[in-house]
Amino acid sequence: MGTSFNVQDYPENKDIVVCLDEGNINLTLPTEKKYPVQPGERLVYNKDNQQCTISKMNDMQRLSMWKQNVIVFKDTPLPEVIKVLNRWYNVEFKVEDENVFEVCLYIDFGQYIIRESINGFRENRSGEV
């Protein structure tokens, strides 16, 4: 079967996040400190202070849904949702009313196209985007 994992490493983020679905991985830092990761665990490496934390994940399936072209947000602040959608669809969302940033969403976009995704936002915000 091999090893299956997700990596999130974006220049604007202070953390590198690795979630292991199956197999084994070992992260070795320049200091030679090693961090073994087991299936179902999430490793977070802070680029600023070079510290690692490993935690058990209860929702690994949700974190791996992107492999089936599914985006799932659960209790996610709207600025993070927008950041993910910007990357996913290669678009730039413009938010005119920053009060919407206080909204947390649970959305499963499945294989929707961008227009359907935006309509999903409209339905959740009473016709406003």
The spatial strand order of the largest sheet comes to 1-2-5-6
Summarize model confidence as the mean pLDDT: 78
Low-confidence stretches: none
User: Structural class given helices, strands, pairing?
Assistant: alpha+beta
The geometry reads as: globular
Write down how many β-strands occur, each being a DSSP E stretch of 2 or more residues: 8
How many helices does DSSP assign?
A: 3
Euclidean distance between termini CA atoms:
43 Å
Helix content: 10-25%
Task: Please identify the oligomeric state.
Answer: single chain
User: Which percent band covers the strand fraction?
Assistant: 25-35%
Let me know the largest β-sheet: 4 strands, antiparallel
User: What pattern of helices and strands is seen along the backbone?
Assistant: EEEEEEHEHEH
- Radius of gyration (CA) equals 17 Å
Short summary:
By secondary structure, this protein is of the alpha+beta class.
Question: What would you say this structure looks like, in words?
Answer:
The chain is an alpha+beta fold and 129 residues long. The chain is built from three helices and eight strands. It has a four-stranded antiparallel sheet. A two-stranded antiparallel ribbon has the order 3-4. A two-stranded antiparallel sheet has the order 7-8.
